[in-house]
Design a protein that fits this description.
Number of strands of chain A: 13
Strand order of the largest sheet of chain A: 8-9-10-11-12
Shape of chain A: elongated
Structural class of chain A: alpha/beta
CATH architecture of the largest domain in chain A: Alpha-Beta Barrel
Domain Ribulose bisphosphate carboxylase large subunit C-terminal (chains A, B): 118-342
Number of helices of chain A: 15
Helix content of chain A: 40-55%
CATH superfamily of the largest domain in chain A: Ribulose bisphosphate carboxylase, large subunit, C-terminal domain
Largest sheet of chain A: 5 strands, parallel
Radius of gyration of chain A: 22 Å
CATH topology of the largest domain in chain A: TIM Barrel
Organism (chains A, B): Thauera sedimentorum
Oligomer: homodimer
Pfam families (chains A, B): RuBisCO_large
Protein name (chains A, B): Ribulose 1,5-bisphosphate carboxylase
Strand content of chain A: 15-25%
């Protein structure tokens, strides 16, 4: 019977840690006193087991549990449930990492395009970084957003995404916005020979998501964006079967105690994200450079047969930071710039300058 | 233009708090420098605004933001996104509470059954508490789970729910399990005249949820369970339109930076949960009695025209704790007992004893 390994950091005394770890193994599997389980097979193959306990700093321990893969049903939301469902409600427990056997990686699916597929989609024949910008502000009309998209595409931005705050609001309902934006990007691509790809932001329950997917596909979009912690990793996993590359947004992802490299670099990738946005260091968010590097490494590391996912550091990007970002992340990265372009007097010029620096940074290495 | 009020607790110096609060208002709305926004309507009606700042303990402040309702599109996942999407990634920010105008409450939907509707569903003519138990352990066959369900229904348990770890796994695939369990409960109800209701656990992406809903409906289940933080509040909100009462499970609810009364008592209720499970004090989880009381009060408090949602404290329940729980929560509560019944040598007897104590606690008040 196959198991995955889930690593946790637990705040606990040395005297209590063995009991605590055993309790966690039960919580994240059968969630009842094992003495009351008569079924031997369940006891041997379903109940979680403690695989190791190591001290990890003052009054903390790193505990690895072996959880039965069968309990996940290879469904990404259920994986989150088994990894961190109940213990998310236990503040002394943090999920650090997850390891799965190769067959499970394939079972969950992973990225269908990955970094190579994304470059292909964007018509990028070199190993240069990709560039990305966002349609803002929400509250704008579809026409205004489309005009902005056209400018960004004409300037050479590789991927134009919805601001993650754009959903299905009265000011720019999904159906009208997506059609208008894709049309503008198509026109800009035709005029310039660029291959800008549009990633609208999907969200909502099953019915709404299905309708949005239909609309997006009909409009001819080249990518989809989803916030898996808002809409569920299960939704991300199902969208990955729809033949379009996926961009994961980390919204609502910080309120849990799951280590960012595990959540954003691994779990989003496992569920099918081809590119993963995360808060960059040095901007409005407080991830350290260390954490950012770890996220990027988790997203790109060899992992069974799963393609690498493209790290997308975001927040506080300016054209002047391009070289620093590429020096830090390497060229297998997508640089996401938002406010800085919109603040520039000459948006198209600023976007073109950004694009040129991104291209140059790719050649310089 | 209507606004909702979102209350946050921010760790910050007094010298910085005004700037920090203003930045949060921008983050949770337009997410770009407002100086770059030309559209006056957006500036006035879409950009978040700081409504109040008060000191709240050492180096902490309580900040109330007015966020434009239009940015939510009255969609529950998008509401989470606007309340706490990006700032979930800023560890100094905690979401404490949310207030919405009455029209918005109705727009989101809220519980369609509420406490009164649930009592009616369960054939409970008095104001007594409801009783609930869970089908465990996962790994059991559909037949084993059905047998357990039959025992619990025969004993008089009002609502039998899936263990939240039950999903669509190989040992008890959803379709077989739900049919078998509902059949067993139907048989027990016929034999005893009880009105036990089954709440299977739904989860997954749009396609899977739609299929599970179809199966559950065909099987004749009386209630549905969902973990909104796993499957998305948008999924909860859509399920609320399907004519079945909803039981929300807090898995993945994390709770450390969204105050539990706001998340479980208010937001789950707003999105359509008729009953809300939360970790009880004195059990395996660390919520204080204060927090538990606040969750129950938030779930049941008058809130526009929204029916009250039934609080379901869970974890560590035993028959001996029934009176204590009713003294603490009152009779508008559902008492959820799991492991303690399964540990008893005589399950049916233990369940009957629990049921009798629940009924008696209802009469005693």
């Amino acid at each position: 019977m196959h198991r995955l390994q889930a690593s946790y950091r637990i705040r606990c005394t040395a005297a209590e840690i063995e009991r605590r770890a055993a309790a966690l193994a039960v919580e994240q599997s059968v969630e009842m006193p094992t003495a009351a389980i008569a079924d031997q097979r369940i006891l041997e193959h379903i109940v979680g087991r403690v695989e190791s306990i190591e001290a990890d700093g003052e009054a903390h321990f790193r505990v690895v549990l072996g959880l039965a893969l069968d309990t996940t049903g290879l469904e990404a939301g259920q994986l989150m449930n088994m990894l961190f469902g109940n213990c998310s409600l236990q503040p002394e427990v943090e999920l650090l990492d997850v390891e799965l056997p190769p067959a499970a990686l394939e079972g969950f699916g992973g990225p269908r395009f990955g970094i190579a597929g994304l470059r292909e989609r964007c018509g990028v024949a070199t190993r240069r970084p990709l560039s990305c910008s966002a349609l803002k502000p929400q509250g704008s009309s579809p026409e205004a957003l489309a005009a902005l998209a056209g400018e960004l595409a004409a300037a050479g931005i590789d991927i134009v995404k919805d601001d993650h705050g754009l959903a299905d609001q009265v000011d720019a309902p999904f159906a009208r916005r997506v059609v208008a934006v894709q049309r503008a990007i198509d026109a800009a691509n035709r005029a310039t020979g660029h291959r800008c790809v549009y990633a609208p932001s999907l969200g909502g329950g099953p019915r709404r998501l299905r309708e949005q997917l239909r609309i997006a596909r009909e409009a001819g979009v080249g990518m989809l964006m989803l916030a898996p912690m808002v809409s569920g990793l299960g939704a991300l996993q199902e969208l990955a079967e729809e033949g379009l590359p996926l961009l994961a947004h980390p919204a609502l992802g910080g309120a849990t105690r799951i280590a960012p490299p595990a959540l954003i670099g691994k779990l989003f990738r496992l569920a099918g994200a081809d590119a993963v946005i995360f808060p960059n260091h040095g901007g409005r968010f407080s991830y350290t450079p260390q954490t950012c590097r770890a996220i990027a490494e988790a997203a790109r590391a060899p992992w069974g047969t799963l393609p690498a996912a493209l790290p997308v550091p975001a927040g506080g990007m300016t054209p002047a930071r391009v070289e620093e970002m590429v020096a830090f992340y390497g060229t297998d990265v997508m640089l996401l710039i938002g406010g800085a372009l919109l603040e520039a007097g000459d948006l198209r010029g600023a976007a073109q300058a950004f694009v040129q620096r991104v291209h140059a940074a790719g050649e310089a290495r």
